[in-house]
Design goal:
Distance between the termini: 27 Å
Mean pLDDT: 91
Helix content: 10-25%
Number of strands: 11
Number of helices: 4
Strand content: 35-45%
Structural class: alpha+beta
CATH topology: Alpha-Beta Plaits
Order of helices and strands: EEHEEHHEHEEEEEE
Shape: globular
Radius of gyration: 20 Å
CATH class: Alpha Beta
Largest sheet: 9 strands, mixed
CATH architecture: 2-Layer Sandwich
Low-confidence stretches: none
Oligomer: single chain
Length: about 220
């Protein structure tokens, strides 16, 4: 069951994992970030979303900003210990932990995402593709979502709209470029240690074809 969403946002940051401290975005939304937008509208254990194509509708534009952030966070173990004992040190002193970090973001982004879902082994006897397709279409048309979709970072929220075949939609940009190796998704075969997957991304006239999960193009 395939669907098409048009999404847009003021800012976006699809962080390259090779950058350790400073956040630098990919040129285009990653398949994993696109999948998360579909899952924000409808996620069930019985279905698995797959991104098939990404179309870039606005020219790729960049913006460099600097922000104050804290160096550390309160660990889950510290919070659990405090909850168990009834007291503990959970505070962070901002003046001592403050760091200034640069981010290279995308701005004024707009994409058309093509995705489809398949049934998983967790599907029950009462589950069917038609059932979940109707649920997704109804929720997308009404603008409903389980959590606010975002563009890489949660502070960069996005708007979305379901695209039907009868509605006119702008053509992708006339831009062709090699995007290099891009993060495809994470392999959760071992939940304790997810493995990143990559593929060689190439944008042809504003359109990026996403290979299937188990194709030779996707490498762990």
């Amino acid at each position: 069951m395939g669907f098409c969403l048009e999404i847009s946002g003021e800012f976006a940051c699809f962080t390259r994992p090779e950058m350790k401290v400073e956040r630098v975005s990919y040129d285009v939304i990653t398949p994993s970030a696109a999948r998360a937008i579909f899952e924000a509208i409808l996620w069930k254990p019985a279905i698995q979303w797959h991104i098939t194509r990404i179309e870039v509708l606005n020219p790729v534009k960049w913006m460099n900003i600097r922000r104050n952030e804290v160096e550390s966070i309160v660990s889950a173990r510290t919070a659990q210990t405090a909850m168990k004992n009834g007291s503990g040190h959970l505070g962070i002193y901002v003046d001592e932990e403050r760091q200034q970090r640069a981010s290279l973001l995308l701005k004024d982004v707009r994409y058309r995402l093509h995705g489809e879902f398949t049934m998983t082994v967790k599907a029950g006897p009462q589950d069917s593709p038609a059932k979940f397709a109707d649920m997704f279409r109804r929720r997308a048309e009404k603008g409903q979502c389980f959590n606010q979709p975002y563009l890489g970072c949660r502070e960069f929220t996005c708007d979305f709209a379901l695209v039907d075949g009868d509605v006119d939609s702008p053509d992708p940009i006339k831009d062709t470029r090699d995007l290099g190796f891009m993060l495809y998704d994470l392999d959760y075969s071992d939940p304790a240690s997810p493995t990143p997957l990559f593929f060689r991304a190439h944008m042809e006239h504003g359109s990026l074809t996403v290979p299937a999960r188990h194709s030779p193009e996707v490498r762990g």
